[in-house]
Design goal:
There is one protein chain. This protein has 282 residues and is α+β, with helices and mostly antiparallel strands. The chain is built from eight helices and 15 strands. The protein is elongated. The N terminus is likely disordered.
């Protein structure tokens, strides 16, 4: 809602301009804002409070602050955000508690935005000069408006069926799911490889949230939150100081609170950001 996104305009649907007895996109009017469109301004706050539903593409760099601004309003909303925002300390609890969720996402996580001024500093395949569209990866919709797809359970195989039929080679060849060294949980690197017959805690990719059905699974927490690990998690076991020092020497980016597995030589391998889930108990 800043000026660079809206050109200082607000778009209004209030009356039937075309005379077809319907108020729709053909009756769209626009008016200039008095300020620069910053969502933190009194002008935009007033518009927020008058709105029924808020639909926008907020600045990703201010996403945390913008989400707090939205939640304060109590309004329904649909906004564009980066997939990695799922793991933010102040965003994830909202997802866990089903106060917000992901909408019906962009195809393959790709979103296209039109820019007004042609540029030549994008990587090949990112910017289409003929359409002036820029492709952004890992975008998704965040919303608190319910939709049917959210309640469609994932169709999954059992653990034994995954070992036999999974399309992922590492699942078929290993014939097992890796166990974390610091969490009493298994690592499931692909959403479609979640074993439907496993009742304990599993670590899954953050992209799982696009397919998350709250009637099928419960979200336990996310990896990487040391405060929660130490205070509230009864299936977290940190390594000894000696082992931690050893892992740190192997990999400077290693962190004690992130889920990790051990290879055949006892070396720590940190997996990508994970969400910890468990099958819903009926």
């Amino acid at each position: 809602m800043d000026k660079s996104k809206t050109n200082g305009k607000i778009f209004v649907l209030e009356r039937d301009i075309t005379g077809d007895r319907r108020i729709n996109i053909d009756d769209l009017e626009w008016q200039y804002l008095e300020g620069d469109g910053d969502f933190r301004s009194k002008e935009i706050r007033k518009l927020r409070d008058e709105a029924d539903i808020i639909v926008t593409n907020p600045p990703f760099s201010l996403f945390r602050e913008f989400m707090a601004w939205l939640m304060e309003s109590g309004k329904q909303f649909v906004i564009v955000g980066n997939m990695n925002a799922i793991t933010y300390r102040d965003i994830f609890p909202l997802l866990k508690d089903n106060k917000i969720w992901l909408g019906n996402g962009f195809q393959n996580g790709n979103a296209y935005f039109r820019i007004e001024t042609p540029r030549n500093d994008y990587s090949e395949g990112v910017y289409d000069e003929s359409t002036q569209l820029v492709k952004f990866r890992n975008c998704c919709w965040f919303t608190n408006i319910d939709h049917g797809r959210r309640h469609q359970p994932l169709r999954l195989m059992t653990m034994a069926e995954n070992f036999k039929h999974s399309k992922h080679k590492e699942i078929r060849e290993k014939k097992k799911y890796e166990r974390y060294d610091n969490f009493d949980a298994i690592d499931v690197p692909y959403t479609d490889a979640i074993p439907i017959d496993y009742d304990k805690v599993m670590g899954v990719p953050i992209s799982f949230m696009e397919k998350y059905c709250p009637e099928q699974f419960e979200i336990v927490w996310r990896g990487g939150d040391i405060d929660w690990c130490e205070k509230e998690c009864d299936f977290y076991t940190p390594p000894t100081k000696e082992r931690a020092d050893y892992y740190k020497k192997q990999d400077k980016t290693w962190r004690i609170q992130n889920p990790y597995v051990l290879d055949e030589n006892g070396n720590a391998i940190v997996v990508y950001q994970r969400i910890l889930i468990r099958k819903k108990q009926s």
